[in-house]
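Run log // design_07
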């Protein structure tokens, strides 16, 4: 049996510092963290002044650089570092350059560079770091300069003493445009700068935690308030002043929570509409509805409350305000050719589509192709010049059958951030957005970028890597990574910054903690300065919580290699990613991802389209195989009997963690409610007519799709499943466990509305195609004789199926 342990380092952040390329003779300044990290370098006529202990370099004792006051001749009797000498080893005066503090300036703003704190200098020279410099050293320590483009600049100060010896240092100047946009977006964790507060939801415990920061920034206090919410809040968004709004998709409700007065009564939305996010714009509240692909528009200030619904885009998810006041909506699971955002104009009801391109890059150990998916947060920079979209990139068009090369642990999915560049407003005042494809950032050893937040000047983007238990800091000015917080807890799902950029809040959702880091400096390893509990009482049994943590994790090397793949990366929230993957190298074929919701693990019988697993613990094969992990089973157990074979000796009972993972999957017994039903959950007249067709012997649908589960999936004998050839097998269907595939396991029909595309190979885009073009010989039910009206009725019924209440 394995033990539950932290596998990589101590609790608290570890930092991987970004490097800045500098001139060899210049010290590296801090990255505007508030610390003066500049270091002097210099030249003398008695040595190289590099402090390395070589004879003649004027540094005194070799190796320690801190010797007795000396003459700088390299004989070991002096330090030459300016403590008592001038840097040239002759002991006749101290020379120390001081370029001042790192700081921010605005583009084209005249800024003063001040070296007056330098010691022993008689002449000063500034190289401004943008290709320009003072022509000659001057007696004045001051220089005025402006920068004409955003960037991080490293002006070099060189000072000279009376003997013409010199030392140099540098300072970091970051130039940005003036912030002009107050970001307003939804997520599991959001900031409220006006109140120096953050709000975070806990879906499993149906709670909202409000945290207000006060006191001195060096010793802040955090006031915590907790509120019960509608069931299963998935996101929180900004409301009116002093309010936030939570969205609860399973309950089809939103709820406004006031900082001072607490929660208002929950507001009901249409049954099955699945509100995913909500935010306020003026007096109105906008709600994304995943079930219907609509945007709800609600004015609670009117009497009675005004409510309307507007077509947006399928699988609607996160919300944000565009700089021109339009409401931006993300499409959670992308179609195969591109990712999508919609911009809704409240003034005209017009909807504009913004897309993120499919990436054709051949896979390697550093990058992959694919389409961004799992789009949620829409992060508009405070500068209003760009939008960042964190997501996963799914390389689904690669594989042994499709491209001749098998997928690997590092070529299947990667964490990416896509950037949309914003243009100048047009004649209607609308701000156009177009993806800057070349700027799309792929993160090595990261599988899924779930959320993010910009710094107040837009120069840094903090990105939550959900499976990797990490927060990446990305420098948007240089296009490079600039620090990593590792092991921040299970499933970091949101990040937020305090208004002064001093404190970073991390929603470690499955560690049930909100962690607060002081990120003013990355010179040392930031540790959490505050840890706030997200739940009043743990809502899940210990085994289920452990299983959910493992399901969502890719950091544990037993689960995956290098942090790329978690179970949740194809089954986020237990759902399907709507991708068809090429598993030919696994002895299978093209396989459309199946939702886990409602199935209860093995509650319907065999697992997968080809019935190649008979217990959820068989996913040990995926961890050890395509995930690249070492597995949750001890090696001795893995090698025992036929445990290492799918459908072999049972794996259940051999590993507490593997059993916990299975228990979590088996707990997913509820289906999402269908938006195709009536307001009280009843079938519409069209769907009721379709039910009669479905159940009629003439069609034969219920011959296979019968009973409460609408499936005849079963084992006829150990390792011998009931499979059906319904005419859908093709060249890409491949094999079953490396042997011929004779048929397909019958899937349930419940929640079909939420699981396109259809069939084992994902070849039916919709149910109409499944019943017609994909069933030419009536092997998949006798449907060729149906009229168009009857086909529409049958489809309406199928889209209404949602399982037992």
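design_07 sequence
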């Amino acid at each position: 049996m394995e033990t539950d342990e932290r596998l990589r380092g101590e609790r608290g952040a570890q930092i991987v510092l970004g490097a800045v390329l500098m001139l060899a003779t210049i010290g590296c300044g801090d990255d505007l963290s508030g610390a003066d990290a500049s270091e002097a370098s210099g030249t003398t006529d008695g040595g190289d002044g590099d402090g390395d202990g070589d004879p003649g370099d004027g540094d005194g004792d070799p190796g320690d650089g801190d010797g007795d006051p000396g003459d700088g001749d390299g004989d070991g009797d002096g330090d030459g570092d300016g403590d008592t000498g001038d840097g040239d080893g002759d002991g006749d005066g101290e020379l120390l350059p001081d370029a001042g503090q790192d700081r921010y300036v605005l583009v084209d703003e005249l800024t003063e560079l001040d070296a007056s704190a330098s010691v022993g200098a008689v002449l000063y020279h500034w190289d401004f770091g943008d290709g320009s410099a003072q022509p000659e050293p001057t007696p004045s320590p001051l220089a005025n300069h402006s920068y004409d483009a955003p960037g991080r600049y490293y002006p070099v100060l060189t000072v000279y003493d009376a003997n013409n010896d010199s030392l140099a240092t540098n300072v970091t100047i970051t130039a940005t445009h003036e912030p002009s946009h107050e970001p307003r977006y939804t997520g599991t964790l959001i900031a409220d700068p006006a109140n120096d507060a953050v709000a975070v939801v806990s879906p499993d415990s149906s709670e909202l935690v409000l945290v207000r920061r006060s006191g001195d920034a060096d010793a802040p206090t955090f006031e915590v308030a907790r509120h019960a919410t509608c069931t299963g809040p998935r996101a929180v968004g900004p409301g009116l002043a002093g309010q936030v709004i939570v969205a609860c998709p399973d309950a089809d409700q939103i709820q406004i929570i006031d900082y001072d007065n607490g929660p208002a009564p929950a507001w009901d939305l249409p049954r099955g509409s699945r509100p995913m996010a909500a935010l306020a714009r003026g007096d109105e509240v906008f709600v994304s509805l995943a079930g219907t692909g609509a945007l709800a528009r609600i004015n609670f200030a009117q009497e009675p409350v005004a409510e309307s619904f507007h077509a947006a885009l399928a699988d609607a998810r996160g919300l944000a305000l565009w700089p021109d006041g339009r409401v931006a909506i993300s499409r959670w699971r992308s179609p195969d050719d591109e990712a999508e955002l919609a911009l809704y104009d409240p003034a005209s009801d017009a909807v504009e589509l913004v897309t993120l391109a499919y990436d054709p890059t051949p896979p390697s150990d550093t990058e992959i192709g694919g389409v961004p998916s799992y789009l949620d947060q829409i992060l508009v920079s405070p500068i209003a010049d760009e939008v960042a979209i964190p997501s996963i990139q799914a390389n689904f068009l690669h594989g042994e059958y499709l491209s001749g090369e098998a997928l690997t642990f590092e070529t299947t999915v990667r964490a990416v951030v896509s950037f949309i560049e914003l243009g100048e407003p047009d004649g209607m005042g609308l701000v156009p957005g177009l993806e800057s494809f070349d700027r799309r950032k792929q993160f090595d050893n990261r599988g899924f970028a779930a959320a993010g937040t910009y710094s107040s000047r837009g120069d840094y983007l903090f990105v939550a890597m959900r499976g990797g238990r990490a927060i990446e800091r990305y420098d948007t000015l240089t296009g490079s990574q600039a620090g990593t917080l590792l092991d921040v807890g299970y499933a970091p799902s949101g990040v937020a910054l305090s208004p002064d950029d001093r404190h970073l809040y991390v929603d470690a959702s499955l560690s049930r903690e909100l962690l607060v880091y002081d990120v003013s400096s990355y010179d040392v390893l930031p540790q959490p300065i505050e840890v706030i509990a997200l739940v009043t009482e743990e809502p899940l049994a210990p085994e289920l919580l452990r299983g959910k943590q493992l399901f969502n994790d890719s950091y544990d090397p037993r689960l995956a290699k290098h942090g790329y793949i978690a179970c949740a990366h194809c089954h986020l929230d237990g759902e399907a990613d709507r991708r068809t993957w090429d598993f030919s190298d696994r002895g299978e074929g093209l396989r459309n991802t199946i939702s886990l919701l409602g199935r209860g693990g093995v509650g319907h019988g065999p697992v997968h389209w080809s019935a190649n697993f008979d217990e959820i613990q068989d996913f040990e094969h995926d961890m050890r195989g395509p995930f690249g992990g070492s597995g949750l089973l001890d090696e001795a157990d893995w090698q025992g009997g036929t445990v290492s074979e799918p459908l072999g000796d049972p794996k259940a009972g051999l590993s507490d963690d593997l059993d916990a993972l299975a228990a979590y999957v088996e707990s997913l017994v509820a289906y999402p409610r269908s938006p195709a039903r009536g307001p009280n959950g009843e079938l519409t007249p069209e769907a009721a007519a379709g039910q009669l067709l479905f159940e009629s012997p003439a069609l034969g649908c219920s011959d296979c799709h019968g009973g409460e589960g609408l499936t005849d999936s079963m084992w006829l004998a150990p390792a011998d499943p009931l499979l059906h050839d319904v005419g859908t097998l093709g060249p890409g269907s491949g094999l079953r466990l490396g042997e011929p595939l004779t048929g397909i396991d019958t899937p349930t029909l419940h929640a079909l509305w939420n699981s396109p595309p259809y069939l084992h190979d994902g070849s039916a885009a919709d149910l109409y195609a499944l019943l017609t073009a994909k069933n030419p010989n009536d092997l998949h039910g006798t449907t060729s004789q149906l009229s168009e009206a009857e086909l529409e009725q049958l489809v309406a019924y199928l889209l209404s199926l949602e399982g037992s209440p």
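Confidence is low (pLDDT under 50) at residues 1-40, 43-91.
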